[in-house]
Amino acid sequence: MFVSNCVLNLVPNKNAVIKEIYRVLKPGGHFSISDIVLEGNIPEKWKQVAELYTGCISGAIQKKEYLDIIEEAGFTNITLLKEKKIILPDDILSNYLSEEEINEYKNSNVSIKSITVYAEKPAKDERNCCEPGSKCC
Questions:
Q1: pLDDT at 130
Q2: Spatial separation of the C-alpha atoms in residues 103 and 6, rounded to whole Å
Q3: CB 99 within 8 A of CB 64
Q4: What is the CATH number of domain 2-120?
Q5: Nearest residue to 32 (alpha-carbon basis) of 97, 91, 78
Q6: How many other C-beta atoms are found inside a 10 Å radius of the C-beta of residue 136?
Q7: I need a labelling partner for 63 at 20 to 30 A (CA). Which of 5, 6, 108, 136 fits?
Q8: Where does 40-85 have alpha helices with state H?
């Protein structure tokens, strides 16, 4: 079993981390990860704000991409256990956005979400991959 809470979005190469989790889990093992994901695009200037990065927002990726990375690594039975929208208070937003930008953000389709994902490593890997340690899987 592997458990992680709001760490992967701080890692630049999420694909490599998920592949490594797959590699080290025993066949039939599982993981549960809580993390922050996006639906839509946050304002570009947020990506340069250290507080938003350490707050797990500016390092987040799109929810679909996050789940696709897990599936592409070979995990099965991928289940979204929890999903909750994160509302950023105006006093936080006003540190980074003008009043006009805050209204634009609130009226957009952008959504910051906390999710908890469960997935399993199959008891047998049927992907016809190369030998362990090779780079093709």
A1: 52
A2: 28
A3: no
A4: 3.40.50.150
A5: 78
A6: 8
A7: 136
A8: 50-54, 63-72
Q: 117 by DSSP, 3-state: which?
A: strand
Measured between alpha carbons, how far is residue 55 from residues 6, 38, 83, 119 in Å? Answer: 9, 14, 18, 25
Per DSSP bridges, beta strands 2-5 and 30-39 are parallel
N-term to C-term CA, the chain: 21
Sequence letter at residue 14: K
Residue spans of the domains in the chain: they are 2-120
In this structure, what token pair is assigned to residue 120? 């399993």
Per-residue model confidence as pLDDT tens for the chain (137 residues): 656 566 787 888 999 999 999 999 999 999 999 999 999 988 888 878 777 776 778 788 999 999 999 999 999 999 999 999 998 888 888 888 889 988 988 899 999 999 999 999 999 766 555 555 555 55
Return the structure tokens found at 83: 């999903």
Q: How many CA atoms lie within 13 A of 72 on its CB side?
A: 13
Q: What is the pTM of this model?
A: 0.81
